[in-house]
Amino acid sequence: MLSRTTTAGRVARSLAASSTRRFVHASASARQIPAALSNTEMPAPTSNTTLSDFGVRHVAYGVARMTDYVLEKGEGSWMHTSNGKLLDFTAGIGVTNLGHSHPRVTKAAQEQVATLVHGQCSIGFHRPYLELIERLLAVMPDPSLDTFFFWNSGSEAAEAAVKVARKATGKHNVIVMQGSYHGRTYGSSAMTKSKTVYFQEVGQGIPGIFATTFPYWHQMGLSQDTPEDVLVSQAVYQLELLLQQQTAPQDTAAIVIEPVLGEGGYVPAPPAFLRALRQVCDKHGILLVIDEVQSGFGRTGKYFAIEHSGVRPDIMMIAKGIANGFPLSGIVSRKEIMDKMPKGSLGGTYAGSAVSCAAGVACADVMREEDVLGNVNARSAQLLDTLHNLQTSPQTSHLFADVRGLGLMIGVEFASTKNAIPRSSSSSPAASKPIPANIGSRVQKKCLEKGLMLLTTSCYDTIRFIPPLTLSGEEMAIGCRVFEESVREVALEG
């Protein structure tokens, strides 16, 4: 009988001698890549610099990145990268709402991995899926939202919502908002109207999509001081015109809206507009679909942004913050609508992952047991105080077009010569100052150099603030200081 040592030695020698199993030896700390992954002779990366170069060479060009840094470790409000430790005001684009690697979420996922990783939804129920539904029922914005389907991404949730709406109503057309973002998969990109890059030169995957006016002054070509009721009445008029000219109510299954435009510029929908949509939908038998993918799970200071208006959704889309970084999305509706779908029409290989659902249960427990929403509102006031001071300062006011948002979903739109802003009748003397070029991207770059990660958004020059909902007052103060310094430097440079 051979000893374990002898056996291990023979196995090691056998592998080393095999000409068909040649791999470059690499330690975990070096993050080296097997040479076999490259189509050409290329040394495996031996440092973060060469690892980044490897990524630039082999990751699809169509994936845009803010930086080519290697993200090594996330911890609370901080991201450790190949270029140092950074304060993260992106939260993975509104995903890690409870901060990176939240200990309770991490523990729940680790325990689930050791119990059941893949409980396929077409085989049977798994416990975390049902426990997550139990937790979410208690926080739905309307008690009619009682039936769930979990999937993986926000784009999939958007496509599922359209599928359910069409089946439930027997109608085909769908109305979305100008400036909306509902995903970039081939189907969901047809519903996205924030930028053409998501579907240019490839066509749009879902027919029957129509866009209507969202009450956002800049998109409507109006001045920033246009009264909200004027914006709403004009937007409602355009919707009614759309129903008369392009898609009849008898052919329209759903109206889909983000309660806060995301990629469109972090523009909150006025409650009066949301209420008007509810009335139009009730009048014509159209389903109102609310996209809470980015605005949900405490991001705006309420569990769901639609709560600010009191409007009842017929279908609600959820994702991002639901599981703090684990891939999970879903749609929620009332049972009479969801039960229109025949058996087998909903599903997916990884739909409602057991590990992601376990993480989602932990997130729901943290939200229930800790004052996350209270912190959101406190940090929001702290941030807005800094932004409004910059907006009114004689040295920097000419850079600003608008400061807007809810909770910790705040947009700063800068003035731009590319998309000229209609001047209000009460423009200040500072408005006559020359407008520097590319303010947002320059501010973003300076912030990054000073250790703060921020994202731009919209076809307009806009920076969005989406930090973790759990960040401290001290961390917010650091972020505000860096942003203010960066804005003032751009103002001086011109």
Give a verbal description of the structure.
This protein is of the alpha/beta class and 494 residues long. The chain is built from 13 helices and 17 strands. It has helices at residues 4-17, 48-58, 91-94, 103-113, 127-137, 154-169, 228-245, 271-284, 335-338, 354-369, 372-392, 439-449, 473-493, and strands spanning 71-75, 78-81, 84-88, 147-151, 173-177, 209-212, 252-257, 260-261, 267-268, 287-291, 315-318, 329-333, 400-406, 409-414, 452-453, 455-457, 462-465. The strands form four sheets. The chain has a seven-stranded mixed β-sheet with strand order 4-12-11-10-7-5-6, sandwiched between helices. A hairpin with a 2-residue loop joins β1 and β2. The longest helix has 21 residues, at 372-392. It is globular and about 65 Å long. The N and C termini lie far apart (80 Å).
Q: Which structural traits does this protein have?
A:
494 residues; alpha/beta; 15% strand; four-stranded mixed beta sheet; globular
